[in-house]
Design a protein that fits this description.
heterodimer, A: 253 residues, alpha/beta, Rossmann fold, nine-stranded mixed sheet, two-stranded antiparallel ribbon, 27% helix, B: 615 residues, mainly alpha, four-stranded parallel sheet, 5% strand
Chain lengths: 253, 615
């Protein structure tokens, strides 16, 4: 079983997010980057499949400038066998089709059985790269995976639907699957893993970034406002109104 | 009965009996000691005077045995003192069997007058202990031990046969009596090394070698440039016990005091220090005849530990009980199995140098910065700096107010990182070494460091010293405050209202050995100070130690047990000297306070002193 895992380096949730003066991107020099959360779960899923089958290869693939190698090393330290870094300059594509095309070019000769990606990136959040990549490489695709099970030349995927419902789908391999956070328990890199990661193969490819179908014009922080609603009436009326609000607005199920 | 004749046959039987039982005794003891000698490191002989003094107090005076459980402890002391006195009796007893007279008739009579009351005390002691073990059955003693019953019976028979032997009775009865006494003593030689009664032999030795510092875990030096073989050697060493640790395992008397005081256990957790940290490792040592057994520690139990050292403090046979460090470092460094909330904590520390992953600190921005002309580095710690409890900011400012009143110059380090306490305790020694190296550079110009956080103080003062030469000294703020009061540099008035109690933080009392300073300061500010039931070095952990502050989901009640004691004390104010304890009390007390009672005030010592200071 040959598995690719797409990982992305994204700003950490506690990181400051200052903008450049042109307001179309972040001032990256001040950003603290981490591995995208759901990608970490995708990596764990791949490692567990390899360990369960006692055979196979997990290849971590990332797209971005030099700083990206930090998350690649982290993935190698956790147990990926080798890595491909699709190296770009600071103007890496923010358009999921352009990104997926670069991944497709880098991966098409490799014949992966499975490509895992995170459900979505925590910075741009399109949630499309893994699906588009699957289409470009002629693979089955599934999103929002909560669990996977390898069958003979097939993969069974538990997908998260809305309102607490799940769906099991069985697809033929090869498949590109995007993974939901929380579907497994990601490991921590052991000391041996950290030391060994330095010696693992890291293949750097530098394709030319083609045209993008979309680009970012302006970034700004959303305005936040507090709104307090007083609910008046008898206890029964207040309770009834509260229940309606919980159910329909806050959507507690 | 001074002139009894033993036949040659009797002497042969006696001689063979002694040789066989003594040989079996020596064989069993040596078997265990040979395993101990395979342990890493050396048995310490430094500070011999202090070690002997400690042995005298804890072995001969039974200090810890009696302090931990007064009545059972006293009963045990009766038995112990009886045994000491009986040393000469036993020698005389066997000498007589070979026709040798050790003591003159007159000396013997005098000695008998001393021994007789002791033999009565031994009988009282052992019967009381047997009653406790087999009738009251306290939980901490664990499963009923038939060996203990047998030993109690043996001891009673020994005493009774001794008393009978000192009376004028027919010779054949006297001889039967003498032989019963002899067989039981020889039986002891057989039984002792095979049971927990080996503590008779090993506890005094173990108390002598006990480390002075607690916690006392071996250092983990990680060299990221090392070769694969060097790394493998280092990792392989992590599963091996030290000589001290192995000696602990064989010295354990299974009394369960460590279980009684364990906050995780009392809070409903699975951690049972007696089994998980000690007895679980005994059979693997014997089976493998080696010390490579630390991976046998129960992992789940290991993560529950608050590293408070209550178990180590209370152990009457000198064991360093706590071994969460040993199993956690294996889980983190070797296995890479780390609970998710701690992975987040570790990443924060690696990326930002603080536990919260924060990038700004309003408090640090307000405070003066350190320069070499200032007396103290004011070490904030992440708790204060990043407002883990926003109310604690006030306590820091109260402490700076005290320093200002006393005209003491201080400043914070702009590039202060976490002291590394959470990662040190949680086993991530790699991140710990990163933080430690960074902080050592930041502290290069510091001469004196003061901090409100005992966890930081312990690391900066004691833990860093295990790795580096440290040129600064560290004081906890309660120590600085005490000194200022004693030197008259601040005037504190006894104007604090209401009943005040004090919660000793584990890191301050047990690990930094400071219990007096905060009490001096409280008594300066209040005339109504009461102690909690467990105080001083026998304090009960608030539940936040050992990195557990960051444990998000706790099923147990570890964090509530101490808060309940504070509520029951009926105090109006609880003072503490640790930011984590402060935060735990602040969270824990409110929901526990009964309706109709005023909310218990939680204060850092600095708050209490600053509120009652003369400007």
């Amino acid at each position: 079983m040959k598995i690719a895992v797409l990982v992305k380096q994204v700003p950490g949730s506690e990181s400051p997010l200052p903008l450049v003066s042109s307001q179309d991107w972040l001032d990256e020099s001040q950003v603290a980057y981490i591995m995208n959360e759901s990608d970490n779960y995708g990596l764990e899923e791949a490692l567990q499949i390899r360990e369960k089958n006692n055979d196979g290869e997990v290849v971590v693939v990332s797209l971005g400038p030099d700083r990206t190698q930090k998350v690649i090393r982290e993935a190698l330290a956790k147990g990926a066998d080798r890595a491909i870094h699709i190296q770009t300059n600071e103007n890496y594509p923010t358009d999921p089709l352009a990104a997926a095309s670069l991944f497709a070019d880098a991966l098409k000769g490799e014949d992966f059985d499975i490509i895992f990606s995170g459900l979505q990136s925590d910075d741009l959040g399109y949630g499309q790269t893994g699906v588009i990549l699957g289409e470009l490489l002629g693979m089955s695709t599934a999103t929002l995976a909560m669990a996977t099970e390898i069958l003979d030349n097939k993969i069974k995927v538990k997908r998260e639907l809305e309102a607490g419902y799940f769906q099991w789908v069985t697809m033929s391999l090869p498949a590109s699957i995007s993974v939901q956070s929380g579907c497994n328990t990601p490991r921590y890199p052991s000391l041996k893993g950290i030391m060994g990661a330095k010696k693992k193969e890291l293949n750097v490819v530098t394709p030319s970034v083609g045209d993008q179908n979309q680009s970012i014009k302006k970034i700004y922080a959303p305005n936040t406002a507090k709104e307090t609603v007083m609910i008046k009436g008898s206890v029964d009326q207040v309770v009834e109104k509260l229940v309606t609000i919980f159910r329909n607005e806050i959507k507690i199920t | 009965m001074h002139d009894i004749y033993f036949s040659f046959a009797e002497k042969i039987v006696l001689g063979l009996g002694i040789i066989l039982c003594l040989a079996s005794f020596i064989y069993e003891v040596m078997r265990r000691l040979l395993i101990v000698f395979k342990g890493l490191g050396k048995l310490p002989f430094d500070r011999t005077g202090a070690r002997l003094w400690r042995m005298f107090r804890e072995v001969f005076l039974h200090e810890k045995v009696v302090k931990g459980r007064f009545w059972p402890g006293l009963m045990h002391a009766f038995v112990f003192w009886g045994f000491v006195i009986f040393g000469l009796v036993t020698l005389e007893h066997f000498a007589k069997g070979f026709g040798v007279t050790l003591l003159s008739l007159k000396t013997h009579k005098v000695y008998t007058m001393i021994v007789t009351p002791f033999s009565i005390l031994v009988i009282i002691g052992i019967l009381a202990l047997a009653y406790r073990r087999f009738v009251t059955k306290p939980k901490a003693l664990g499963k009923l031990s038939p060996t203990s019953g047998l030993v109690a019976f043996f001891i009673v028979v020994l005493m009774v046969t001794y008393l009978i032997g000192e009376r004028e009775i027919p010779v054949f009865l006297w001889k039967i009596n003498w032989w019963i006494h002899s067989v039981i003593i020889l039986g002891f030689l057989f039984l002792i090394p095979r049971s927990k009664h080996l503590h008779l032999v090993l506890a005094p030795i173990n108390i002598f070698f006990r480390p002075f510092d607690q916690p006392d875990h071996s250092t983990v030096n990680i060299d990221l440039e090392a070769s694969e073989e060097e790394l493998d050697d280092m990792l392989a060493g992590l599963t091996k016990m030290t000589k001290n640790q192995a000696l602990d395992i064989f010295s354990c008397v299974e009394c369960g005091r460590c279980v009684d005081v364990c906050p995780a256990n009392r809070g409903g957790g699975i951690l049972d220090p007696k089994h998980h940290f000690i007895l679980d490792l005994r059979q693997p040592l014997l089976d493998t005849k080696d010390v490579d057994v630390l991976s046998q520690i129960n992992v789940e139990a290991g993560w529950e530990c608050t590293t408070c050292q209550a178990c180590t403090e209370v152990c009457p046979v000198g064991n360093h009980v706590e071994k969460s460090d040993e199993i956690r470092r294996l889980e983190v460094l070797v296995e890479g199995k780390v609970p998710q909330e701690y992975q987040k904590l570790f990443t924060n520390l690696q990326e930002t140098g603080n536990t919260e992953g924060a990038t700004t600190s309003p408090l640090a921005d307000r405070l003066p910065k350190f320069s070499s002309d200032k007396e103290y580095v004011l070490w904030l710690g992440c708790f204060a700096r990043y407002e883990l409890d926003p109310e604690f900011t006030k306590s820091v400012e109260n402490f700076t107010k005290i320093l200002d009143v006393a005209n003491i110059s201080y400043g914070i380090l702009e590039q202060e990182h976490c002291s590394g306490d959470p990662v040190n305790r949680l086993g991530d020694k790699l991140t710990y070494s990163m933080l430690r190296k960074h902080n050592m550079e930041q502290l290069s110009e510091a001469k004196k460091v003061v901090t409100l956080c005992p966890h930081c103080a312990l690391n900066l003062e004691k833990e860093y010293r295990k790795y580096d030469t440290v040129s600064y000294t560290v004081e906890h703020h309660t120590q600085v405050i005490e000194k200022l009061i004693i030197d008259g540099r601040i005037q504190v008035n006894q104007t604090a209202a209401g009943k005040i109690t004090y919660h000793d933080p584990c890191n301050l009392s047990r690990m930094l050995d400071e219990v007096d300073a905060p009490r001096t300061a409280i008594n300066a500010a209040s005339d109504n100070f009461i102690e909690l039931p467990e105080s001083g070095k026998n304090t009960l952990c608030c539940g936040a130690g050992g990195g557990l502050w960051w444990k998000k989901e706790t099923t147990g009640r570890t964090h509530l047990v101490r808060a309940e004691q504070v509520v029951e004390s009926e105090a109006d104010t609880v003072v503490t000297g640790c930011n984590f304890c402060y935060g735990m009390m602040n969270q824990g007390l409110k929901p526990l306070t009964p309706e109709g009672r005023n909310e218990i005030q939680v204060k850092d010592l600095a708050d209490l002193v600053a509120e009652n200071i003369s400007q």
